[in-house]
Amino acid sequence: MTYFRRHRRLRKHPGLRAMLQENQLRIQDLIYPIFVKEEGEGATEILSMPGIYQHTLDSLEEEIKEVLRLGIPAVLLFGIPAEKDALGSQAYASDGIIQQAIPVIKALAPDLLVTTDTCLCEYTDHGHCGCLDHAGYVLNDESLELHKKAAIAQARAGADIIAPSSAMDGFVHVIRQGLDEAGFPLVPIMSYAIKYSSAFYGPFRDAADSAPSFGDRKTYQMPVANRREAMRELASDIDEGADFVMVKPALAYMDIIRDVRERTDLPIVTYNVSGEFSMIKAASQNAWIDEESIVMESLLGMKRAGADLIITYFAKDVARWLSATES
């Protein structure tokens, strides 16, 4: 008789399967995105992202209390200002909405890690991630100065982690230099190092009111077909002093997460973006899939690919599911 290995021996018992599980998803791995708006009252649900809300400073307090109850260790803040202009000045104003929100959060939850998205697209009247020339082209170096000002304003307000997402060349270098000179050498940078020009961002642009008023972002975000280019982007941000590196989106880019894991020992973050979230929510609401199983499989896949941390709109759901399993 020909001998063959019985791999199923190690799968027969649920306890054995649990003991031999190679990758774990923990509440401590999660970062929860929150949208904070300046105008209006209370929370407004985002139609394309069921269960996700735009919060005012008043409703933000209850949201943070729930994050604390669930044990989620970190949030990522996006601001929606009352007024926008060509230079996105509310991104770096001392009284900008994110600069107001951070102290509110820190008063409620001093140990909660507050990460701030450092970009201009939510704040510019044209919806692009930097300032423009007369022809509508996004200027790189001039935009960097504005991103530096935003990062410093966020750090002064109490941000624990700065997360630049504009995809401008040199943004880590300029922001690192600016933070150091402003007296914040210990504030880390979570760089959106590899950010693709993805169709999966659609619902986010509803949530953050950040869709470009003309054109697209393909001159500064990465082409979706490219893999080697991603490694060049990664190398630049590591050389410039990034403390974390991010791959965004996640599900269609597992190969990129694995490539990054093989090239760096820095913490890797991946962003389970709005389109990925909304597709699963829509299918679940139609009873086409089991939401919990699909979400947990997807996020475990990101961990298996090499991600250390996951930014996800499912963070509160996942925290509840994990807590229920442990109890």
Automatic annotation (TrEMBL):
<feature type="binding site">
    <location>
        <position position="119"/>
    </location>
    <ligand>
        <name>Zn(2+)</name>
    </ligand>
</feature>
<keyword id="KW-0350">Heme biosynthesis</keyword>
<keyword id="KW-0456">Lyase</keyword>
<comment type="similarity">
    <text>Belongs to the ALAD family.</text>
</comment>
<dbReference type="GO" id="GO:0004655">
    <property type="term" value="F:porphobilinogen synthase activity"/>
</dbReference>
<keyword id="KW-0627">Porphyrin biosynthesis</keyword>
<feature type="binding site">
    <location>
        <position position="121"/>
    </location>
    <ligand>
        <name>Zn(2+)</name>
    </ligand>
</feature>
<feature type="binding site">
    <location>
        <position position="129"/>
    </location>
    <ligand>
        <name>Zn(2+)</name>
    </ligand>
</feature>
<feature type="binding site">
    <location>
        <position position="313"/>
    </location>
    <ligand>
        <name>5-aminolevulinate 2</name>
    </ligand>
</feature>
<comment type="function">
    <text>Catalyzes an early step in the biosynthesis of tetrapyrroles. Binds two molecules of 5-aminolevulinate per subunit, each at a distinct site, and catalyzes their condensation to form porphobilinogen.</text>
</comment>
<dbReference type="GO" id="GO:0008270">
    <property type="term" value="F:zinc ion binding"/>
</dbReference>
<keyword id="KW-0479">Metal-binding</keyword>
<dbReference type="InterPro" id="IPR030656">
    <property type="entry name" value="ALAD_AS"/>
</dbReference>
<feature type="active site" description="Schiff-base intermediate with substrate">
    <location>
        <position position="248"/>
    </location>
</feature>
<dbReference type="InterPro" id="IPR001731">
    <property type="entry name" value="ALAD"/>
</dbReference>
<feature type="binding site">
    <location>
        <position position="217"/>
    </location>
    <ligand>
        <name>5-aminolevulinate 1</name>
    </ligand>
</feature>
<feature type="active site" description="Schiff-base intermediate with substrate">
    <location>
        <position position="195"/>
    </location>
</feature>
<keyword id="KW-0460">Magnesium</keyword>
<dbReference type="GO" id="GO:0006782">
    <property type="term" value="P:protoporphyrinogen IX biosynthetic process"/>
</dbReference>
<feature type="binding site">
    <location>
        <position position="233"/>
    </location>
    <ligand>
        <name>Mg(2+)</name>
    </ligand>
</feature>
<keyword id="KW-0862">Zinc</keyword>
<dbReference type="InterPro" id="IPR013785">
    <property type="entry name" value="Aldolase_TIM"/>
</dbReference>
<comment type="subunit">
    <text>Homooctamer.</text>
</comment>
<feature type="binding site">
    <location>
        <position position="274"/>
    </location>
    <ligand>
        <name>5-aminolevulinate 2</name>
    </ligand>
</feature>
<dbReference type="Pfam" id="PF00490">
    <property type="entry name" value="ALAD"/>
</dbReference>
<dbReference type="GO" id="GO:0005829">
    <property type="term" value="C:cytosol"/>
</dbReference>
<feature type="binding site">
    <location>
        <position position="205"/>
    </location>
    <ligand>
        <name>5-aminolevulinate 1</name>
    </ligand>
</feature>
<protein>
    <recommendedName>
        <fullName>Delta-aminolevulinic acid dehydratase</fullName>
        <ecNumber>4.2.1.24</ecNumber>
    </recommendedName>
</protein>
<comment type="pathway">
    <text>Porphyrin-containing compound metabolism; protoporphyrin-IX biosynthesis; coproporphyrinogen-III from 5-aminolevulinate: step 1/4.</text>
</comment>
